[in-house]
Design brief:
Structural class of chain A: alpha+beta
Number of strands of chain B: 12
Shape of chain B: globular
Number of strands of chain A: 3
Strand content of chain A: 15-25%
Radius of gyration of chain B: 22 Å
Number of domains of chain A: 1
Largest sheet of chain A: 3 strands, antiparallel
Number of helices of chain A: 6
Oligomer: heterodimer
Radius of gyration of chain A: 14 Å
Number of helices of chain B: 13
Chain lengths: 130, 396
């Protein structure tokens, strides 16, 4: 299916880090079923680093590949580094996304950022970890 | 790996006889049907023959009522715009169903921009149009009703004969888009009682590039393509002779073999319709359970999205299509599924199998074997499925 790059196909066929984390330190959801793509990211944080990331995605090939790539890019990184991941940098790592798919399927970075925000707001409330 | 092609709606192979009939017109018989010299004779005779063959396919009395066009889309554009424009002195109101093909839907939208009014007739959960709803939507200024004979996405066959009776009572012109049915099931324009009917050869093993609009004698239509006097001045432009010959031959073959083809397709379709929901939980059959196209099996697989399903089926050698938002270039879920009352969430899981002459029982069984693990794999990845499972657990 040549509408997707080899890298997208590779991540779609063998997505990394699919799953859930029980009692995650942060959880982020992005998208809605009307546009066709929904992503949930779960993170585990240790010493300001993303120790573990898991995701679940409902969506097209691109959406699944994006989630997989985001998880791979962010795992082991510091919070600050992970917040620098953008839809563009994800698309670049995936060797490009079809133009019409760029916005709807490229929600992985936002979902991850939401998980981080969720973690940070828990911290402020005095969750006392990290 | 086994290759199973179940996307015959998108394209299907030519029948050998059709290809053979076309070949001379791509080579020796290159003449123009309008020419008076000898070179014009074979193509002119061939186009005339094709006209008779197409007329016979739909039980039309007069082959002059057949207008060749370039595609089913063109036929539908011609019907909606040409019939509306020719009757506008009587009124400017058009009635179509909510599940028409884009070529009818968007033609009607264009007419709206030109000052016409369009009413959409709703459908029920099976995609069936209620003739009573059509009758209710007809006004004194209604000049055209266009309801499809069958919907190719969900397979539902509409009660065209009943609708035509009600429309005729109001003396309104009635067009039906029969692109999904012509050549696939018996059609008689006389029995249906319609005024105009669209068909396309590539839906019954003819080539792309040749289609037709049948318009009952005496019904006025305004040409959309002006030029020479081809097609009786109703559709100008040098004929696509080879494709028209192919359409004619395909029509002839369909007329002869229709019953055998339906007998081949129906049990295969029914096996898929019955077995797939048994093999995979939370699969909804879309369209009418019985009253549907012989080669059409359409579903929505809950909690997963159609494009990723399509891609994983492709990786197992199976070709299908989907009405999900992600598979459409417009990134919108199928208006047909939404009009039938399905939620966007469920419509995203749309998958459409269109069977053909070459489809075998082994093909169907192969799909039934490879698809459940694919659905399971995508569900394990789906946040919607996780939520559903959680809810189910909590409810216990």
């Amino acid at each position: 299916m040549p509408i997707y790059s080899e890298k997208v196909m590779e991540h779609f066929m063998n997505p990394r880090n699919v799953g859930e984390i029980e009692n995650p330190d942060g959880l982020g959801e992005e998208g809605n079923p009307v546009c066709g793509d929904m992503m949930t990211f779960y993170i585990k944080v240790k010493d300001n680093h993303l120790e573990d990331i898991k995701f679940k995605t409902f969506g097209c090939g691109a959406a699944i590949a994006v989630s997989s790539m985001v998880s791979e890019m962010a795992i082991g990184k510091t919070i600050e580094e992970a917040l620098k991941i953008t839809p563009s940098s994800v698309a670049e790592k995936l060797e490009g996304l079809p133009k019409n798919k760029f916005h709807c399927s490229n929600l992985g970075a936002q979902a991850l950022h939401k998980a981080i925000e969720n973690y940070q707001s828990k911290q402020k409330k005095g969750g006392g970890k990290g | 790996m086994r290759k199973v092609y179940l996307d015959n709606i998108a394209g299907s192979p030519l029948i050998a006889e059709v290809r053979e009939a076309m070949l001379p017109f791509l080579w020796d018989n290159f003449g123009n049907p309008s020419s008076l010299h000898d070179w014009g004779d074979p193509p002119r005779i061939a186009v005339d023959d094709a006209r008779s063959q197409v007329a016979q396919l739909i039980d039309a009395d007069d082959e002059e009522e057949i207008i060749f066009t370039g595609s089913g889309t063109e036929s539908n554009n011609f019907a909606v715009k040409g019939l509306a424009l020719a009757h506008q002195e009587k009124g400017k109101h058009i009635v179509i169903s909510a599940i028409e093909h884009f070529s009818v839907m968007n033609s009607a939208k264009t007419m709206e921009k030109l000052g016409f009014e369009v009413s959409l007739v709703p459908v029920d959960q099976y995609g069936s149009v209620d003739p009573e709803e059509v009758r209710r939507s007809i006004r004194d200024d209604t000049i055209l009703v266009s309801i499809m004979h069958a919907n190719s996405e969900v397979g539902t066959i509409e009660p065209i004969k009943e609708i035509a009776e009600l429309v005729r009572e109001r003396k309104v012109v009635f067009h039906t888009d029969a692109v999904a049915t012509a050549g696939s099931m018996p059609i008689s324009v006389k029995a249906l009682g319609v005024d105009a009917l669209s068909l396309a050869g590539n839906q019954f093993y003819g080539p792309q590039g040749a289609a037709a609009l049948w318009v009952r004698k005496g019904v006025r239509i305004m040409p959309l393509i002006d030029g020479g006097i081809q097609e009786g001045g109703r559709r100008a432009g040098t004929e696509n002779v080879a494709a028209i010959v192919g359409l004619g031959k395909a029509a002839e073959m369909a007329t002869v073999n229709q019953a055998v083809r339906m007998k081949h397709l129906t049990p295969l379709r029914d096996r898929l319709l019955t077995e797939l929901p048994r093999k995979i939980d939370h699969v909804v059959v879309t369209g009418h359970p019985q009253n549907r196209l012989p080669g059409n099996a359409s579903f929505c697989v809950e909690f997963i999205e159609g494009e990723s399903l399509l891609m994983l089926l492709n990786s197992q050698g199976v070709a299908v299509s989907s009405g999900s938002a992600c598979t459409s270039r417009a990134l919108k879920a199928s208006h047909v599924l939404i009009a039938m009352g399905l939620s966007h969430e469920i419509a995203q899981g749309s998958v459409l199998f269109t069977l053909g002459l070459h489809t075998t029982l082994k093909d169907i069984d192969y799909v039934l074997e490879v698809m459940p693990p694919i659905a399971e794999r995508l569900r394990q990845m789906s946040p919607l499925y996780a939520k559903y499972i959680q809810k189910a657990k909590g409810g216990k």
